[in-house]
């Protein structure tokens, strides 16, 4: 085993976890659909439609508004850094 294997092993473990979770979810969903005679599929379709609506909404509005306010966020971060520098300088002058 080489020192570089840790990253690949970690990625493989993460992928395996996702696949196992998906398989377990699909199995449980199949059991629920069989137990309810197919009525649970309506719930799955409605849930999927709500999730699709949310993803589209985020894609159209969330990303767009995030780009629109990027300049304001940068200005605010700069202001906060300047205030932190001033505060640290004030503490340094008092200690001297």
Helix content: over 70%
- The total domain count is 2
The DSSP helix count reads: 3
Percentage of residues in strands:
under 5%
Overall SS class: mainly alpha
Unreliable spans: none
Total strand segments: 0
Shape: elongated
Q: SSE string, helix = H, strand = E?
A: HHH
Report the end-to-end length measured between terminal Cα atoms: 56 Å
Most strands sheet: none
Mean pLDDT: 86
Q: What Rg do the Cα atoms give?
A: 26 Å
Task: Summarize the model shown.
With 96 residues, the protein is an all-alpha fold.
Give a topology summary:
Elements: H1 5-35, H2 40-68, H3 70-95
Report on the structure:
The chain is mainly α and 96 residues long. It folds into 2 domains: 1-37; 39-96. Helix content is 90%, strand content 0%. It is elongated and about 75 Å long.
Q: What are the key terms here?
A:
mainly alpha, 2 domains, 0% strand, elongated
């Amino acid at each position: 085993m080489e020192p570089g294997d840790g990253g690949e092993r970690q990625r493989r473990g993460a992928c395996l976890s996702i696949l196992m979770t998906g398989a377990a979810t699909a199995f449980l969903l199949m059991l629920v659909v069989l137990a309810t005679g197919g009525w649970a599929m309506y719930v799955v379709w409605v849930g999927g439609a709500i999730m699709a609506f949310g993803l589209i909404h985020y894609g159209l509005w969330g990303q767009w508004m995030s780009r629109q306010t990027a300049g304001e966020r940068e200005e605010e971060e700069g202001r906060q850094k300047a205030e932190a520098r001033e505060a640290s300088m004030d503490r340094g002058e008092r200690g001297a």
